[in-house]
Amino acid sequence: MRHPVLLTLLLPPLLVAGCTSDPAGPAGAPSSPSASPSPTVPAVDYTAWRAGNSTPVADPLYPARGTAALDVLHYGLALEWAPPTKTLTGTATLRIRPTKDAPSLVLDFMPYQVDGVTLDGTSVTGTVAKEKLTVAAPVTADKPVTLVVKYHGSPKTTPMPSHRKDVEALGLTVTKEGGLWTMQEPFGAFTWYPANDMPSDEALYDIEVTVPPGWSAIASGTPAAQSGTTFTYRSTDPVASYLTTLAVGKYQKLTAKGPRGIPLTYWYRKGTDDKLLPYLKKSPQYIAWLEKRFGPYPFPTGGVVVVDSESGMETQQMITMGRKIENTKARRDRWGTDLLHEYAHQWFGDSVTPTTWTDLWLNEGFATYAQDLYTQDVLNLSEASLDRYVRQADAKLRAKLGPPGKPNPKNFAEGNVYLCPEAMLRELHNHLGDKKFFALATAWVQEQKNTQQDRASFIAFVNKQTGRDFTKLINTWLDSKTTPKSTAT
Q1: Mean pLDDT, to the nearest integer, of 132-146?
Q2: Rounded CA separation 204/214 (Å)
Q3: Does 331 have pLDDT greater than 70?
Q4: 37 touches 43 (CB < 8 A)
Q5: Residue 100 belongs to some domain of the structure
Q6: By CB distance 3.0 to 4.6 Å, which of 29, 200, 272, 332 could disulfide with 48?
Q7: pTM over 0.90
Q8: Is the CB of residue 164 less than 8 Å from the CB of residue 414?
Q9: Which helix (H) or strand (E) is 421 found in, with range?
Q10: Residues 3-34 pLDDT 10s
Q11: 25 HSE (CA, 13 A, CB side)
Q12: Which domain holds residue 451?
């Protein structure tokens, strides 16, 4: 997620220019059973979705969202959107590995009208209450099951637990013309499909969306074949639910190639978004700049969809950017540097994801530092000016919001989890120098692709990679109520 708006008030002059339905599994999946199936249900080999295997961890900041009792391996979503009635009709096929024996399955889900539920092909009762779908059927630990939920209704959003000035309701939003868009950090995927809506449970996805003629549907993942007005997307790298996206509208499509021939797709509204095209077309340049410092772009495709929002979101392989993010006199290139920030998240947050929301600083610290290093590079700013900037911003944000390692759940994604961990990374950079710091950052994302990490694993990695003990430095910067003194020369 891009810098919150309040940070523009802190920027000193030195940086003011600168967050398918798939009932049979993946194509070519084998059909031999891995568990004893019902006599009436064809055998399913769940190893076809082994890349979606996770170790779910209950989230301490938002314990009402998600559960560690199950691990979703794959979501197959077949959706249809009817603009005149603003009705979403869906069939969600979930391949689930229960992590413990339980009398029922429980997922996050907005109260749509449930039209039918089956578990391994047998009809079961599914009840939606208090944004939870409870499926009344027993499950056994490590014995995978297939859950199919059919539903329809009008999407509704859920409140955002933050005081940011650009705060908006989370989840699937209906536009005035009858389109759709969503941003859902730290949660909100459950507003359009049943989900285990927490960051530690990543899964594979197949999403197909049918829309009326003249409309386009955009989702996270790699674009697949379009059939008529049905748009299909597939994610073969695991995705956290907050990093999925869906947008429907009367879009124009523009394709390009990034470094090493990476296919890029930009979706925008002709006339409305024309002024943003220069930034979209700079995507190959942004990715090349990031690759030089952090290694190869981690996914097979990329792109951007522009929506009617005031914010930006690093949704995996298809960034969601708000057209209401405005360039200002103080920040002439704000839309562009915010887009680079979201591209940086494809490495930091998407490819390597925090285990829980306590460690949001792992995402935002790196992406914010990349954004400001880019601004420094473009404007040829001095090292001293960047040092001064991050320390001044750090001091103000710690005083207002507290340290980044202990975020308040009522203040999600506010400035302290952006600038304060950036200041910590700046301190590490000053200790290590360019060569060793960028080698560290590159190894962090390239060696741990498609994993979930936390503070302890980050500290252990830094110490092993550098051969030095930075435990005290990192913990101090994450937990101190005031800006720590610099110990770098």
Answers
A1: 97
A2: 29
A3: no
A4: yes
A5: yes
A6: 29
A7: yes
A8: yes
A9: helix 416-446
A10: 664 333 334 333 333 343 333 344 333 333 33
A11: 22
A12: 357-479
